[in-house]
Structures are given as C-alpha cells and as structure tokens.
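I am writing to request your help with a piece of structural work I have in hand. What I wish to show you is a protein chain and, alongside it, a tokenised description of its three-dimensional fold. Could you please explain, in whatever detail you think fit, how the structure tokens follow from the sequence? You will find the record immediately after this paragraph.
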Amino acid sequence: MLQDKIRNLPRFISFTFVFLKPKPKKVIDLILMKKNLIQIFSLLTLFFVVQACDYQPNRSNIIAASRNVIDTGVRYIVVQRDTSHPVLPEKPDSALVTKPDSLLTAKKPDSIPLPAKPVVKVGIVVNAKAEALVNYAKTMIGKPYVYGANTPEKGFDNSGFVNFIFKHFEIDLPKYAPAYIAVGDNVPIADVSEGDIVLFSKTDSVKKVVYQIGIVVSAKGSPVSFIHASGGKTNGVGVSVLSGWYQRKVMGYRRAL
C-alpha cells in the first residue's frame, strides 16, 4: 500500500500544480518545491529498496565466513567450529594397494595366491653319513653267506658283513660278533635310527653274549628293520623285520657313527 502511494506521488504533484494555476511569481517556487519533492521521493524509494533486500553488513559477512554457518531458512545461526576431534584423512581407494616404492598399482581380483611354503619338521636331524652307509650296504643284497668271509667276491658272514661296510667309511670294527657288546654307545629303543648296529644273542636276551649282528636301515620312530648276512632262510645278504625270532633274541643297539 505504501509503495503504491509513493509510486503515484509524482502524478499527484503534477495534478496539484495544474489545478492551482499559480501566478507567474510563484512558478519558480513551485518548480523548486517539485524538485525537492522528487529528491525526497528518490531517497524514500532507495530506503525501501534497501529494507526489502534485507542487506547484511560487511562485518557480519566476515564473521560468518570464519565459522560454520547453518542456514535454517529464517536467519543465520553462527555455530563455533568443533576442533576437539581431528579430521581424519580419507581412506585410500580399496582397489589400490601401496607398495614400498610408493607406487599404486591396481589389485588383480583373479590373481593366483602363492603356494604355501613347505613344512619343515623341526627336531629331525638326518645323519648324512648313516644314510650313505645304509645305501652302500643295500648294494650288497644278494651276496652269498659264507662263514668267515668278509668280501663281496667271496661272500659274508654276519660280523664280516658289518665289518666290511663300516670299514668302507673308514670306521674299524671288530671281526667277531661277541666284541660288538662294547662298540660305540648304547642307544635306547626310542632313538634307534638308520646306521645303528642291532645285537642278537644265540639263545635268549638274558644271556649277554652277542651271537649275531646287523645294520638298522629304518628311520627313527619307524618299526625296526635291518640288513644282515644270514645262513638261514635268507642265505645271504638281505633285509629283515625285527619280529618273531629276531624280536625274542634282540639284546640292544649300538651307535658307532
């Protein structure tokens, strides 16, 4: 309503000027009055335009720019910035991986995993010399049994065979079986492994007189088997399992390596 009245003010002034029909003397005064009224009208118009725009002072804009401003749709509410929780950096793209050389390479979804490392059993020590000794002894399998002989050409008896095999590896052992009761060190049954010497009695294990010997070819923890020269069913150099007659006659084990 007020704006409409202000908009019609110049028309009202012109109408008044014509209706009054002033005298020439007063024409100049009326012109000046009209000019003053137009200036007042311009100032009023500028005032209402500024009020309609809801002008914000520069100082308020500066304060609002340095803080977090929340627009509620009605007025500006100034909220103090929260500095108690530091801003964490954004997580890198999950499709990228960082290498030690700081290069980013794309992950391959169809990449083949590397094979697992072989499992190495701890605590099992392989005696290379014992392994070589057993392998060499097995090359004599099939040689004939000959009492008192100790060469591949003539054949072997049980003590002559063991003596020959160890002598090949520069280990001197007795030529007769009873002397092996004191050879090397005694070995508990739980620790018996390849290369050890097994002792047998003639009648039973109570009588501590060695009658027959052989070389263990089985690994530690496995059922004992041994290679020897025998005049029985084997009738020569062969491998037997520690069972039956041999199990009843065994006296012990010695380690000479």
The radius of gyration is 58 Å. The first strand starts at residue 68 and ends at 71. The helical segments are 2-7, 9-20, 24-53, 58-65, 128-138, 158-168, 245-249. The chain is about 30% helix and 20% strand.
